[in-house]
Structure formats: structure tokens, C-alpha cells
Amino acid sequence: VWENVVLPLDLTGKLNGHGNERAAEMLQAVGLLNRRGAFPDRLSGGEQQRVAIARALVHDPLVVLADEPTGNLDEETGKSILALVDRLTRGAGKNLILVTHSAEAAGYADRVVTLRDGKFDEQHAPWQGD
Questions:
Q1: CA–CA distance, 59 with 44 (Å, rounded to integer)
Q2: pTM of the full predicted structure?
Q3: Three-state SS for 90?
Q4: Which of 33-42, 52-61, 117-126 comes out lowest in average pLDDT?
Q5: CA–CA gap between residue 97 and residue 14 (Å, rounded)
Q6: Is pLDDT at 127 greater than 80 in this prediction?
């Protein structure tokens, strides 16, 4: 878990005291600081998604891209992940671009753009799926 989260910091030369602090903060934010030594095969699907969220946010990006972040999760875990992503991005003033087939996931958006028959169709939240 730890190596997975600090990878972006290591690749950008920012794995220092502050980088380690930031990684610990992100793991704490997603509720996995106590699992920092765990291997991926010992994590549930929801825990793996939370590690991916921590990794995506650890280097403090302005824009976060999320492609089907709840696609392989059960409904309850999916809701938890969406609430977590919303809290960590919106609360920090980040922009989130979320790709999803889920009307519930799209409901977290301020703006929804759908692709229908090869054309973009913009709707504003609250979005009502069909």
C-alpha cells in the first residue's frame, strides 16, 4: 500500500519528509493508514479503490481523472467511494472529471456531459438518468 501511494512522489522527486507526511495524510483520509504495509492481494476491492484515490491525490493535482471508480464494487462500497472522492476533491478545491455509466455517480456532479450516438449532450445537475 505505502509503495503504491508514494510512487507519484518518487517519480517526480518529491519523496522527502513533506512527501512522506502527505502520503500518510492521504492514507489517513481514505482510512487505510493502518494497512500501509499490506500487499494488494490482501485488500478488498473497496480498499484497493481507496489506495488508488490516495495515490491520485497525493501529489495535490488541480484536476483528478477517474474512470469508473466504482465499476467493480458492490453498491454500498461504491457509495462510500463516491462520497470519499467527493469530500477529498470538492473539499480541497479540486476539479474532478468522472467517467461513469452510473446515474448515481453522475449525481455527484455539478455538470454532466453525456455521449449519445457519438454526440455530446450537456445537462446540469441534478442529473436524472433515463
A1: 24
A2: 0.80
A3: helix
A4: 117-126
A5: 25
A6: no
